[in-house]
């Protein structure tokens, strides 16, 4: 579940406007991506995990006990169909999605670019490890005495009976 951000907070508004200026600058120079190119390792991770990019990132930051990512959605002033763009930030990096016809597609593209960065960073190791703070499951130690008792019972079972006394 994505972090519900207070879009009226002064911090959010200030950062949103800073990124809006960055988007306008990139758009003026034609530097906004039109496609998302990710590594084969990222594609393989998504295929094996069966997660969408947004869910994978949410699990990653949860396991690292970091705050969820904030996605900044922008509506571009274009006439054609690709009018939405999404940005997010992680570890002092800003990730642009691509121009998309819907907000959801723009957000998924943005998450895919960020996920590609995380795969190169340490995503596989973090996703395999248990969540920090959770106790690792320790296998129970088997008591050696039960096995010894079982072996001794089988030994006494196979002894011959003494016919005179009736005992073993």
From TrEMBL:
PROSITE patterns: DS_RBD. Keywords: RNA-binding. The keyword RNA-binding applies. Gene3D superfamilies: 3.30.160.20. Residues 52-120 form the DRBM domain. GO terms for molecular function: RNA binding. It comes from the Eukaryota. This is DRBM domain-containing protein.
């Amino acid at each position: 579940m994505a972090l519900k951000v207070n879009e009226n907070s002064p911090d959010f508004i200030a950062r949103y406007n800073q990124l809006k200026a960055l988007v306008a600058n990139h758009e003026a120079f034609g530097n906004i991506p039109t496609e998302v190119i990710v590594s084969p390792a990222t594609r393989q991770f998504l295929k094996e995990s069966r997660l969408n990019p947004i869910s994978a990132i949410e699990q990653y930051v949860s396991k690292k006990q970091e705050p969820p990512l904030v996605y900044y959605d922008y509506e571009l002033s274009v006439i054609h169909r690709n009018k939405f763009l999404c940005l997010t930030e992680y570890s002092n990096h800003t990730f642009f999605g691509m121009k998309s016809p819907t907000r959801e597609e723009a957000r998924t593209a943005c998450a895919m670019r960020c996920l590609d960065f995380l795969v190169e960073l340490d995503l596989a190791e973090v996703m395999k490890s248990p969540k920090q703070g959770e106790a690792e499951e320790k296998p129970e130690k088997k008591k050696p005495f039960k096995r010894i008792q079982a072996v001794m019972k089988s030994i006494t079972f196979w002894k011959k009976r003494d016919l005179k006394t009736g005992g073993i």
